[in-house]
């Protein structure tokens, strides 16, 4: 594996009792980047990262992590990465500090070094004042920050996060984002799964869009938007039978279009011009809205449905 790859997957397959959850995907993750898996529930995101951190075995294909084959060297891989799962698997009856010290014991970190590292992680997570509070009394956002701190106990080269902000309020979500940016700036490679579009756009240097076990597209958030839908989207609801007239008029000014339900989406790099053209068809539509293009538009165009 090239030194530039933290993760390299080729033809990666995972089957469960005859069901193929991941269908022969290829991807690489580079050092010091934040790499995302974006897609709806059931897309195969969580299954893929479980193979990366050696929680579930690979059915077929090849997968190398930090230079090691996941089939042959899982112990070496696990020692060098941290994992934050969707599930709350903290010990609720132990204090914040006790949870961190207990986890340090799994890596045989000497007691003195463990205490020093735990103090550093409490400061990083903003949990110093909660060090002696039982975990069951923490808010959801605090528990998630503690889970991230715990995953950093062994100073991992790669941190894997599965839906890191699901269920959190906006303030807690933004605080988690800030902590992840700090880790990336410190040189930690991040892999995360998410179905939050803003999260992917805010954090990921590159991402793959997954659906039903396959990778539909790969690139930076900006590249994917520009490649598939341009910079702007004009949404309108055509009167019955008038969508064809609208598309005939604006065909030369749009990159693509999509109809979902009663809404027609016009993807363009010049929204003002398309708006001007469509306004000339007054009476052919019931409402119209111009907005910036997003990753959700990319997903809509690729799959014909939303991420929910």
Number of beta strands: 14
Sheet bearing the most strands, described? 6 strands, mixed
Per CATH, the superfamily of the largest domain is: P-loop containing nucleotide triphosphate hydrolases
* Lateral strand order in the biggest sheet: 6-7-8-3-9-10
Mean pLDDT: 93
Number of helices: 11
Strand content: 25-35%
Note down, in words, how this protein is organized.
The chain has 308 residues and is an alpha/beta fold. It has two domains: 7-219, Rossmann fold (3-Layer(aba) Sandwich), CATH 3.40.50.300; 231-292, Alpha-Beta Plaits. Helix content is 36%, strand content 28%. It is built from eleven helices and 14 strands. A six-stranded mixed beta sheet has the order 6-7-8-3-9-10, sandwiched between helices. Helix 4 crosses helix 5 (140-151), helix 5 packs parallel to helix 6 and helix 8 packs across helix 11. The longest helix has 16 residues, at 170-185. The radius of gyration is 23 Å and the shape is elongated. The two termini are 36 Å apart.
């Amino acid at each position: 594996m090239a030194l530039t790859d933290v993760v390299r997957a080729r033809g990666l397959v995972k089957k469960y009792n005859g069901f193929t959850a991941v269908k022969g995907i290829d991807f690489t993750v580079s050092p010091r980047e934040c790499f995302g898996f974006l897609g709806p529930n059931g897309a195969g995101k969580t299954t893929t990262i479980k193979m990366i951190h050696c929680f579930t075995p690979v059915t077929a294909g090849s997968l190398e992590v930090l230079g090691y084959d996941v089939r042959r060297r899982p112990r070496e891989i696990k020692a060098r990465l941290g994992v934050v799962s969707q599930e709350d698997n903290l010990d609720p009856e132990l204090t914040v500090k006790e949870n961190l010290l207990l986890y340090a014991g799994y890596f045989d970190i000497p007691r003195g070094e463990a205490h020093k590292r735990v103090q550093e992680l409490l400061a990083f997570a903003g949990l110093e004042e909660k060090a002696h509070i039982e975990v069951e009394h923490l808010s959801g956002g605090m528990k998630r920050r503690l889970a991230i701190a715990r995953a950093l106990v062994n100073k991992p080269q790669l941190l894997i996060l599965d839906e890191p902000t699901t269920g959190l309020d906006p303030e807690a979500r933004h605080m988690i984002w800030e902590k992840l940016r700090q880790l990336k700036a410190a040189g930690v490679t991040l892999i995360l799964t998410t179905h939050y579009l803003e999260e992917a756009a805010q954090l990921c240097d590159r991402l793959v869009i997954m659906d039903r076990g396959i990778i539909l597209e790969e690139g930076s958030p900006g590249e994917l938007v520009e490649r598939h839908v341009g910079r702007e989207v004009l949404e309108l609801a055509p009167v019955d039978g008038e969508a064809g007239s609208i598309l005939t008029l604006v065909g030369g000014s749009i990159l693509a279009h999509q109809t979902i339900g009663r809404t027609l989406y016009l993807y363009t790099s010049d929204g003002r011009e398309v708006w001007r053209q469509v306004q000339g068809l007054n009476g052919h539509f019931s409402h119209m809205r111009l907005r910036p293009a997003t990753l959700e538009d990319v997903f809509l165009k690729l799959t014909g449905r939303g991420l929910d």
